[in-house]
Amino acid sequence: MIDKVLAIETSCDDTSVAIVDTSGWVYSVVSASQDLEHEEYGGIVPEIAARNHSIALIPLIEEAFKKASLNWSDVSGIAVTNRPGLVGALIVGLVTAKSLSQAKQLPFLGINHLEGHLLAPFLKDDNYSSPEDFGYPYVGLAVSGGHTSLYYITGLGEYQVLGTTRDDAAGECFDKFAKMSGLGFPGGVRLDHTARNGNPQAYDFPRSMLKEDTFNMSFSGLKSAGQRMLEGMGPELVKAHLPDLCASFQEAIVDVLIAKLEKAAKFYKVQRIIITGGVSANSRLRARAEEMAQRKKLRLVIPPLRYCTDNAAMIGYVGALRMARGEFSTIDLGPSPQALESDFK
Fold it and tell me: N or C: lower Cβ tally within 10 Å for the chain?
């Protein structure tokens, strides 16, 4: 019988381990950031990410058990991210999970990282739980450095892709503009902070596909427009007007995300919406989403930051639910940079 599971997440540059049960209760979640290791390169270097996962993972597993006051006899399975993500990073987590599965005689299951994000609102701990009336169906916006998509969620394993970015992810767009404007890495966080002192109407950036009758999005044109504007202004002028530039660029992305989320909620006649993924930490996106939800009388859930960024708790919850209904992986399971077609209908 599956109850508590140990979960491992190494899809990108954050190493994370958690212990979660089938109710969504998080007994512990511990993570190690690699921001300092990648900062000098201005972005994530896959080889460095994989190497750091291999160093951090076992100590984090030991810390997760200690923090939860549990041991191996208290868990009944292992959940591990095996798709999508950086293949080298995924391999570290997957090989570790397989080795522990054999050593501890526990079943394991490979989990889709994106599915974890979509069910993250159901996680709970001493300081967070979703509203009592929150449940299926709902529309979810998953937005991060690698993914920007809208889903219609009706149950575990029941996810309909409504629309996605046709090119760059919103988080990637934030990071690239931050890098081009000299803010450095991690760009999205620094851009958000800088934009708080700026005027979002100061500069006119494009909002691609904003009014098109589709749930798809596009951000490559915005990124190119941002590059042209920065190059045309020059370093000194950019520095002098950086808060306004960041606020205006950010507003263009948020306008598109909010418009598409509102459109999807209306089309599917749902009263519940979520925003998840690393970009959901953006203060302007959160504020605009809350305003829209209040105006449209929608129930909005945005998990706390610890469950929005890449974390093992969301992987553990999905793993616990799926293993409880008899789903397990075999030892020949491999990593994948993409989700399986069967993951989303």
Answer: N
